[in-house]
């Protein structure tokens, strides 16, 4: 316990001293980069559904540009393994913002011998909230699988070290809160916020996006919400995606 608190403050000090001041980007507009899964991504889960970040630019007008790098089917683990957090790291500029929202594909436990279409599909994180690891063979390669917080914290720290103006760790969206016929919402386990990164003082923010979306769906009511999950209880129509952006 003492050791981990100590490590935490050392890590924090190095982030603080390395933190560059925001500079302007090529087009003088900061970019908001979005990492996430199909509930966030362009074309959502396909079949006419849409991810919420496609509408995010309407919240900012011409003051920022938005790059929606979310990708259907991904978890914090597979987004890391496939180098998708890295792609954002390479493309971003100091002064940019990054939103990270995962959870719907992160559940379960890593299993040996899964492929991109079988088993846990290389998506399940190692259970736990700390530095636990799980060793599995995925796609014929040995993979040390980490916990959800480890992946999110690592990506956040990468962006902060590169001078991000802020990292927003966003709680996953709910599935249809009316799917049983009456309203039900439970806080997800894949929500993470670590004061080790320094919190708002160090430009790390947690947004209760899921709770907000559940509240919006509650107010809209069952008929409207059911009609705006056209394919399943996970992927939203463009209208509902826009409501929760
Ligand atoms: C979604 O569309 C694909 C073809 O693009 C189709 O194979 C699939 O069955 C559809 N799924 C649903 C749930 O409508
Ligand atoms: C941490 O982030 C860096 C940069 O995105 C990435 O290259 C590396 O694989 C990540 N490591 C872990 C343990 O997630
Ligand atoms: C958005 O970011 C990704 C990296 O995550 C990059 O490959 C892509 O070209 C960017 N899109 C635009 C339109 O700049
Ligand atoms: C599986 O491994 C092959 C060979 O290294 C690679 O080309 C492919 O992208 C991997 N597939 C997945 C789903 O990671
Ligand atoms: C997967 O197989 C490896 C090698 O046989 C083993 O060390 C590991 O514990 C297995 N992992 C799981 C989750 O079963
Ligand atoms: C794993 O390797 C075996 C034997 O080399 C091969 O038959 C199989 O197609 C490979 N699986 C994947 C997912 O690449």
State the shape: globular
Given this structure, which CATH class is correct? Alpha Beta
**Count of the domains:** 1
The CATH homologous superfamily name equals SGNH hydrolase
Widest sheet: strand ordering: 2-1-3-6-7
Distance N to C terminus: 38 Å
Counted beta strands:
7
- Give the rounded overall mean pLDDT: 90
Bound molecules: 2-acetamido-2-deoxy-beta-D-glucopyranose
Radius of gyration equals 18 Å
Structural class: alpha/beta
Q: Could you name the CATH topology?
A: Rossmann fold
The stretches of 5 or more residues where confidence is low (pLDDT under 50) are 1-25
- Please estimate the helix content: 25-40%
Order of H and E elements:
HEEHHEEEHEEHHH
- CATH architecture grouping: 3-Layer(aba) Sandwich
Query: From the structure provided, what is the oligomeric state, counting identical versus distinct chains?
Result: single chain
How many helices? The count is 7
Strand content: 5-15%
Summarize the model shown.
With 245 residues, the chain is α/β, with parallel strands linked by helices. The chain is 28% helix and 15% strand. The structure holds 2-acetamido-2-deoxy-beta-D-glucopyranose (NAG) (6 copies).
